[in-house]
Fold:
Amino acid sequence: MFTTTNRNAKVLDEVRFANTSQKASTYSWSFGDGTSSSEEAPTHRYFKSGDYVVTLTAENEKGKSKTITQTITVTPPKECLVRIETSEGDMIARLSDATPQHQDNFVKLVEQSFYDDLLFHRVIDGFMLQGGDPNSRGAGPGARLGSGGPGYQIPAEFVDSLAHVKGAIAAARTNNPQKLSSGSQFYIVSGRAVTDAELNKQEASTGVRYPSAIREEYLEKGGVPFLDQNYTVFGQVIEGLDVIDKIAKVQTGAADRPAEDVWMKISMIQ
Structure:
């Protein structure tokens, strides 16, 4: 009664279902992951690996129905990926293997549901979106946010191939000579247009030359290069740059806090 383009899909693949039901008028799909659809021939994405039992119940105008099931096998990604759900839309991000301490810490907190229901408490258009303060969970209007954390810091991990281009995920920190990162607070770069002259100035300041790919990405997407070699970049948004733009444009009040809360929920894609 239905076929699929891929019985052995990878996480995040678009799985297309072709409906072969005859004379049916309504359709009820269950994808085995808690989601459903009433479309005749839906497309679905899985965010976790595993075996999923897909069920289709097709019913004709006389009320006669037929149900059929198939099992879809979804394999895990090769990269370390997270899904960042927000009140303004969802993002997919890749965490870098080149910053193992930051990657391991972020994964640990995500698996503990540490970030669920926290806020992006500081948003500056053309700069960045900051969150990860545990004190922001349930924080009332006017609450002072930005000083909370898990009670530890992480050594800086500066990598030449990771820069503050648009969509970069980096660790926030207090002012300290070792440039130690916050144990939980992070920001996502929204950024602004960047010129060759700015990149040349940054190279002269830090003594670190940008790889050609990073330079091209800065010129294409924009970013905030003056933060490079000062704050640890440990990830990159690979889907949902438009969501960054939406959050960056929200109305803000005192201390750059959004006038209406922008919440987050982060989960592993594995």
In short: The chain has a mean pLDDT of 97. The chain has two domains: 2-75, 80-269. The chain has four helices and 18 strands.
